C-alpha cells in the first residue's frame, strides 16, 4: 500500500471522507487486487482500534457544574416565534 492509500485508510477510519476520497476508496475496494483490499481494510480497522484505545485512555469526566450550566443556557433560550 502506498502512502496515499494509508492516508485514505486513516480518513475512512476517522469518518471524515469526502466525495473525492469516497470515489478513491470505492475504486480500491472494487479493484482486482484482493491483497491490497485486505491490507487497506486491515489498516482502517487498526486505525479505528487505535483511536478507540486513545479515547478510552484519555477520557475525562466533565466538570460537575457543566450539566447545570448547559441546562440553564437551554432554559434561557427563547422558543421560536411562530409566524
Describe the overall structure.
The protein is mostly helical and 83 residues long. It is 72% helix and 0% strand. Helix 1 (3-14) crosses helix 3 (34-58). The termini are far apart.
- Order of helical and strand elements: HHHH
What is the name of the CATH topology? Arc Repressor Mutant, subunit A
Largest sheet: none
Count of alpha and pi helical runs: 4
Strand content: under 5%
Overall 3D shape = elongated
Let me know the average pLDDT: 90
Spatial gap, N to C terminus: 57 Å
Q: Using only CA atoms, what is the Rg?
A: 21 Å
How many structural units, i.e. domains?
1
Instruction: Tell me how many strands there are.
Output: 0
Determine and state the CATH class: Mainly Alpha
What is the secondary structure topology, with strand pairs?
Elements (H helix, E strand, L loop, with lengths): L2 H12 L4 H12 L3 H25 L7 H11 L7
Helix pairs in contact: 1-3
Keywords: Transcription, Transcription regulation
Protein name: Anti-sigma-K factor RskA N-terminal domain-containing protein
Organism: Nocardia puris
Summarize the structure.
By secondary structure, this protein is mainly alpha-helical. The protein is 72% helix and 0% strand.
